[in-house]
Amino acid sequence: MYKYYKTIRFIAFTAILFTLFSSCDEENEVQQPLGYLAPLNLPEAIYLQYGEDYSIQLPDDYKNADVEFSLDFSSNDLDLGNGKNLQEILESAIEVNTEENKLVIESDKLYPNNQVSSITDVRLPETYKTVLTVSSLENYQPVSNTFSLYISAAKVEISGVDDSDEIPFSYHMYGEDTAKYIHQLKAPGLSLENTNWVLHQNGFPDQQVIVNEDKILFTSAAGSPENTAEWTYDLIPSLTKDGFIIASRQFRVFFIPEIKFFFGTYYPEYDLTVKTNIVHIALGEAYESSAPSFFPAEYKKSFLIESIQKDDEDFDNSEGIISINENNGAVKVAHNHSLEEGSYKIIVKATTDDANLTLETDLTLIMSVAEDDDHDH
Known about the structure:
Number of strands: 31
Shape: elongated
Number of domains: 3
CATH class of the largest domain: Mainly Beta
CATH topology of the largest domain: Immunoglobulin-like
Helix content: 10-25%
Largest sheet: 6 strands, mixed
Radius of gyration: 39 Å
CATH architecture of the largest domain: Sandwich
Distance between the termini: 158 Å
Number of helices: 2
CATH superfamily of the largest domain: BT4661 domain 1
């Protein structure tokens, strides 16, 4: 009886232990992760120009899954002064739009990287490092992705400049109305709220150029002291927000003593003029001259023949035998049987965008019968 009782007790104890261990195994099986969420696959680096918005679609698996998104900006904990913190600004500029399942960046809420504030002397980091983590409430392993955000300054638009070169430029001539010295500044697409225009002058600032609101102005004393030599202003206007540059552009303004306009060739790098304004041509034959030199070319608008003299006497060109290309100033002589030998002095006028500024030059065509000419003149 005693042995039987001990046997029954042992069997019962063993059954209880088996039941307990089985329950623990079942609980452990339920707690095992089901796997990983779909990977994020964000680019390692995102490059934006200030003012440019950016969005990227997240994996479709997140749409119907029970997930949470978190963005970590802790590596950007920087006091910007005036009660502003970079981490907090990043939180407002970089978000996950859960309805559209997108990562969204609004760069105009931030600042271009590596800028120094002219107000607080704080330097921004070279990149904004951000960690996006997606966590599952359905027992999937979370996934994370770190990316670097680089923001460059936007480009300022400057009126009255030749934008064909990498560094745009403009020419002004001494003696012009100072109203022509004004350059308007624009930052298309950017909010100008709480911003300021500033101007940096490379070289030696001479106090003859200033920025007034959104305009760059030159005084009547701008240029060389005697207004006799070419003078260059190398300027960088910038738009700032909280002292940080958000848009910028370098450009140059050249003040020149005169416009070069003549028939011949001008070498600006040497300030060398080679005139070819007296030309011998065959009488009666068609002819077209080279276009006159006009420097700086941006002042050029159109050309016309002001007058013609033959051997110092007024010449009647009503037949239009002598004409001009209005676009480039080249003088043409049509094939004819009516002109006579002699010297034809043609006064060519160039018009510019400034109605008060016109220029004149001359071309003399000496017409004579060619030795092999069999025309009956």
